[in-house]
Known about the structure:
The protein contains nine helices and 20 strands. The protein has 375 residues and is α+β, with helices and mostly antiparallel strands. The longest helix is centred in the middle third of the chain and has 18 residues. It starts with a strand and ends in a 13-residue tail after the last strand. The mean pLDDT is 93.
Amino acid sequence: MARVELKNVQKTYADGSKAVHDFNLEIADGEFIVLVGPSGCGKSTTLRMVAGLEEVTGGSIAIDGREVNNLHPKDRDIAMVFQNYALYPHMSVYENIAFSLRLRGADRGEIDRRVRHAAELLDLTKVLDKKPKGLSGGQRQRVAVGRAIVREPKAFLFDEPLSNLDARLRVTTRAEIKSLQMRLKTTTIYVTHDQEEAMTMGDRIVVMHRGIVQQAGTPMEIYANPANRFVAGFLGTPPMNFVPGLVTTDAAGGVTFTEHNGPGSAGGFTIPLPAAWKDKLVNHINTPLVLGIRPQGLVECERSSAELVLKTTLVEPLGHETDITAKSPMGSSLVARLTSRPGMKAGEELPVRIEPSACHVFEPGEVGVNLTRRA
Ligand code: ADP
């Protein structure tokens, strides 16, 4: 087990492309960290630098206080699990799991003890004699994890390990990996582009975009309090709605958001914002801003108490919930997640109120700052 520390870590590839800018993170002993972000944001590059498979071009990486920048991968005492499990097809499951220990010259008794222990943890005992081609995708994935476990490394690094599995198997396997990590308490860095995987697995998650860490924190901290519009839009299903508009002060001294599409546009719907936001927004009165509303924050209500009447364009029943895509009178497209209404039809009107606790106000732009972050 180990602490892993990344300080001002950078990566510029030989062709001049900058994949990672100034990455800083202290990972505690036993922590499960998930690096998440869209394809190409620099997650794998960061992981590969920790593994030693990619050279660091700036900053330092330390494991248990010792800088490892120039240490060979095999001397870093960490084990990596990849998306393509890279199992040896001609070897049995037992031999695949034992392989790295044999290379190291471990004695037979010790190899047998560790392989059987890993097989038990991973429910592979009955298939130890089989070849990889006789296994299901989930079992192959577990063999790959078994190979990492037997090495008893200081840290596990996972690079999109579930991408080759179907949706149902991904959900069960992610729970298995999470509970295994909780038992072994081995420091883990896990890379995925899947926000749900990140939310459900990480003790903390690190959201990356264009090689830059946008925010690091516990899943619920980040979900409830996104630092900027990119993070807000990346985590959560369906994604947060964004509506352009202006904030004004009203006669009573409160602050109000009005949907607005830029110069010349007539104002659309108006909602009062929490009084506590006044100080946060006072320097942004009458400048273009963006209101973020989680789909769960659009709550169907009586027409008489509605803040907004939407016009439904698409209905997606999910069983116990329904996603309704609908347009505001000014044409903003919004998604509401309702706990009823599977039978709603396109064209129907949907009167809603907007739950302030599901809202945030952002500066404009892809990574516009969340001005209403709770401290
Ligand atoms: P992710 O894992 O988030 O999908 P990567 O770390 O693989 O992202 O890639 C980050 C960026 O670095 C991308 O723009 C990618 O094209 C670039 N990149 C990755 N590997 C190389 C390489 N060997 N040479 C040049 N550019 C690379």
